[in-house]
Amino acid sequence: MSPPPFARTLAERGLWPLERLAVTTLQVNVGKRCDLACHHCHVEAGPSRSEAMDEATADRVIALLESSPETRTLDLTGGAPELNPSFRSLVHRARALGREVIDRCNLTVLFQPGQEDTAEFLATEGVKIVASLPCYTKENVDQQRGRQVFARSTEALRKLNGLGYGSGNGLELDLVYNPLGPTLPPSQAELEVTYRHELRQLFGIEFDRLATITNMPIKRFARALEREGRHEAYLALLVNHFNPDTVPGLMCRHMVSVGYDGALYDCDFNQMLELPPVGGPRSIWEIEALSELRSAGIATDRHCYGCTAGSGSSCGGTLV
After folding, report:
1. What is the rounded CA–CA span in Å between residue 33 and residue 30?
2. Range of 201's domain?
3. Which pLDDT tens digit goes with each residue over 188-223?
4. Which end of the chain is least crowded, N or C, by CB within 10 Å?
5. In a domain, 130, yes or no
């Protein structure tokens, strides 16, 4: 049996309609090209993808950021965002506006041709790095992300530590955990303790905090579940662990997502499903400031149970 519509679940608990508050974070997917092709990737990014934000669209992103003083954070994602030709310009101009910039880095990209000085660039600009490291063991990381990824990831983390990241001096380095399979993440606080101990003892690696993120049942991960006959069971797991206490903190309530082509979405997951906003503008070319999106309705579907199951899930980790 298919799960009930997410909106109905919220309405039954007096949590509907779901509306956006002030847009404090602008998350921008600058393209789908990546040096990895991870099994859990909801973007279906990879080396063969060519979709990329052009310079004009990047310019429009900065113009919107400048006209939206309540939007304090530019969150850059991909693919590997560093591979986009406009990446450094976006970072530099956003920092010049006094905004926090987050780079969602897969770590291995730092060793790609042309990226030799990217780590130094990020440090100079004071960019916060949110780095994917789905486990602290080689076996699990390589199984999910590809051969030798763990070794290159730990090497990249040591390089970032050498530049001052993760040392408490203002250069923030967060790590991201994803479950290997169709399960909910364990306790974020407890897992962070384990990550910190293992990475420090084995590799001398330091970081600021760990974020645990639930795998969303969409795109590449969804197809893997379907091949294994576990798709409906995973959806049922998410539905059965719906936690209403997570709803006030849902990331879609304080951020908007922009696609490489400038299209607007309520979150990165809706973007990958091409699920447009409920009414209102659908492109950054149709608005003059992000404040115009405040109080807009938010599009939902059954994948939204992934953000509200258990302790909740967002780009910043658990919600409760």
Report:
1. 9
2. 20-231+249-302
3. 999 999 999 999 999 999 999 999 999 999 888 888
4. N
5. yes
